[in-house]
Design brief:
The complex is a heterodimer of chains A (about 325) and B (about 260). By secondary structure, chain A is an all-alpha fold. Chain A has helices spanning about 15-50, 65-75, 85-115, 120-135, 140-150, 155-160, 165-170, 175-180, 195-220, 220-230, 235-245, 250-265, 265-270, 280-290, 295-325; strands at about 55, 60. Chain A has a domain at about 85-140 and about 200-325: Orthogonal Bundle (MetI-like fold). In chain A, a hairpin with a 5-residue loop joins β1 and β2. Classes of the chains: A mainly alpha (about 325), B mainly alpha (about 260). At the A-B interface, α1, α3, α4, α5 and α9 of A face α1, α3, α4, α5 and α9 of B.
């Protein structure tokens, strides 16, 4: 059908315009209601419940108390006794997320740069591969690394069989590995450890890093760096003085987004981190669904996580604004 | 340098593929434990996953219901929002789009907890339909983005031409807007489908252990140790992802959807 076929019915009269306005208003109304009910109310519930109070031996009741927040920052028995256990968990959330997101962005950057220089059809094939790995569930990825790092099969076994373990022992590096907790007396041991946690977390967001950097890098003007090369600048100088400054903002924005995403990661931490290095996300789970059954305190922790994430997202937004303004 | 670049890309691909390959390989194990390389290779696990073990077939059915339902619902909500944003650009439409993207932007555990409370109060906790709605809410941001990209690709002069020739808004919508945005709508649908399949934390909170999707079932089985059947699930999901994204790349413009510059080819 072409547009011309419909000309007869297209007479636009004022009498028709009014119902259309009403329809549009109704559409706005329905959509607004949907968004408020499903996208705003859940967050409000979390915030409101975080001020609730747990009843010993029962569930919890509505209340308006700051006890949960006090408990998070200084412990229940404050001011007689102070504990920073929960702050420390938040600290580990940040620690793992920062290192893993930086690692992912720094390794994804050269990869994406190379990717954007390929032919368009080759880019599409790589993107299919990267998107497929991006969409793989956290549980599959944790399972994969768990097998790879487990002592009976995977890398430690490979180290043993190929004689790499023996070689490490001979040159004396084995003792260093033992000191940082990556080996038992007989062989290397990769999990549970910080190493396994950070490796899996940065693996988890690496495809995201590529996808997020891709638009900015594919808009880079190659003639700029070519000009600099022609004028005699070395490849490293070009990267440092031309390429990096022009992608500084998307680079920081991407790191922030990945960081926020990793703040809430649960499966990786619960499988790979040692018990003394559990994070806020794990604590939220054990309070709300797990053994503690203290929904208000879990909500308070979720609110604190949400606030941390919002601050980071806000800065990311500012960076994007600045990037677009240029 | 060119060679160095290729080596770096190949190395990245290798590391990226490594855990996936290991999981897939482990599916072929004949015994009950996961070994890599697989011992006593067999394809019997595929039969268990798809046909004979109700734990897995039920989980797969739930996964499919949630993913297809959520993708349909997410597209249905995202379409009018994206259209209003594009056609009017009003403050309200921007606010709607912002709210719609909110659940996707915060750490998933927070929206998981929030939706868990929400369904506990509204009586949906532990029902499959509430899982469908939850995933639609969480992933609505994706069709919102793809449909918006599609709408932006429409040449405004086509709209003007249609209007000049006397087409009403509805007719212009049907003859100009709709045909040009179909590929982007389908892409959005499939992005939700694939991510919903693989999503874990939100469905974990809203299912309240009364039903299991495949990812939930795998997480539940983590404590009892791995079985090769779990790896079959991984293969299946990976195959679905590759098929979907390859289809998007084949019939849509994947580099453009991912934000590549249009002027270069």
């Amino acid at each position: 059908m072409t547009v011309a076929d419909d000309i007869d019915v297209a007479a636009d009269s004022p009498a028709e315009a009014t119902p259309r306005l009403i329809r549009k208003g109704a559409l706005y109304g329905v959509l607004s209601a949907l968004m408020v009910v499903f996208c705003v109310v859940p967050f409000i519930l979390v915030i409101v419940i975080s001020f609730g109070r747990k009843v010993e031996g029962a569930a919890w009741v509505w209340d308006f108390t700051f006890e949960n927040y006090q408990r998070f920052f200084v412990g229940v028995l404050w001011p007689d006794e102070v504990t920073f256990l929960y702050l420390q968990q938040l600290g580990y959330s940040f620690y793992f997320a920062i290192i893993a997101s930086l690692l992912a962005v720094l390794t994804a950057l050269p990869f994406t740069l190379l990717l954007t220089r390929l032919k368009r059809s080759a880019q599409a094939i790589w993107l299919v591969f990267i998107l497929s790995s991006l969409s793989m569930s956290e549980v599959f990825i944790v399972m994969g690394w768990d097998i790879l790092l487990s002592n009976n099969s995977g890398l430690p076994r490979l180290f043993q069989v190929t004689g790499l373990t023996q070689w490490l022992k001979d040159v004396g590096w084995f003792q260093t590995l033992r000191d940082i907790g990556l080996a038992n007396p007989r062989n290397v041991k990769f999990k549970p450890s910080e190493f396994a946690t950070i490796l899996t977390m940065s693996y988890l967001v690496w495809p995201y890093a590529v996808i997020l950097l891709y638009p900015a890098l594919s808009r880079l003007d190659p003639s700029l760096s070519e000009a600099a090369r022609t004028m005699g600048a070395s490849r490293w100088t070009v990267t440092r003085t031309v390429t990096l400054p022009s992608i500084r903002l998307p680079l920081m924005g991407t790191t922030l987004l990945l960081f926020v995403f990793l703040l809430g990661s649960y499966v990786t931490i619960s499988v790979f981190a040692t018990p003394d290095k559990q994070t806020t996300a794990v604590a939220i789970y054990s309070n709300i669904r797990g053994s503690n059954l203290n929904a208000p305190f879990g909500s308070a922790q979720a609110v604190i996580l949400l606030i941390s994430a919002s601050i980071c997202l806000y800065f990311g937004h500012l960076l994007n604004r600045k990037a677009e303004a240029r | 340098m060119r060679v160095g670049g290729h080596i770096f890309m190949a190395l990245s691909a290798l590391v990226l593929a490594m855990p996936i390959v290991v999981v897939c390989g482990a599916a072929l194990n004949g015994g009950r434990s996961m070994f890599f390389p697989p011992q006593d290779p067999t394809l019997a696990r595929f039969g268990e996953f798809f046909v004979s073990e109700p734990v897995w077939t039920n989980a797969l059915a739930n996964s499919i219901i949630v993913a297809v339902g959520a993708a349909t619902l997410a597209v249905l909500i995202a379409w009018p929002v994206a259209y209003l944003l594009w056609s009017s650009g009003s403050k309200l439409s921007k606010a709607l789009a912002g709210l719609g993207s909110l659940p996707f932007a915060v750490p998933p555990i927070v929206i998981g907890v929030g939706l868990g409370f929400f369904w506990a109060f509204t009586g949906g906790l532990g029902h499959v339909w509430s899982g469908v709605i939850s995933h639609a809410i969480l992933l609505m941001a994706l069709p919102l983005v793809t449909i918006s990209i599609g709408l932006q690709s429409i040449d405004r002069s086509h709209m003007d031409a249609a209007a000049t020739m006397g087409a009403t808004e509805q007719i212009a919508f049907r003859t100009v807007v709709l045909p040009q945005t179909v590929p982007y709508t389908i892409s959005g649908f499939f992005f939700v489908l694939v991510l919903s399949f693989n999503e874990f934390i939100v469905i974990f909170f809203v299912s309240a252990s009364s039903y299991a999707t495949v990812t939930l079932q795998i997480f539940n089985s983590l404590r009892n140790g791995y079985t090769p059947t779990m790896a079959v699930a991984a293969i299946t999901f990976l195959a679905v992802s590759i098929l979907v994204f390859a289809a998007v790349a084949r019939w849509g413009d994947l580099p453009r959807l991912m934000g590549a510059d249009q002027s270069k080819n």
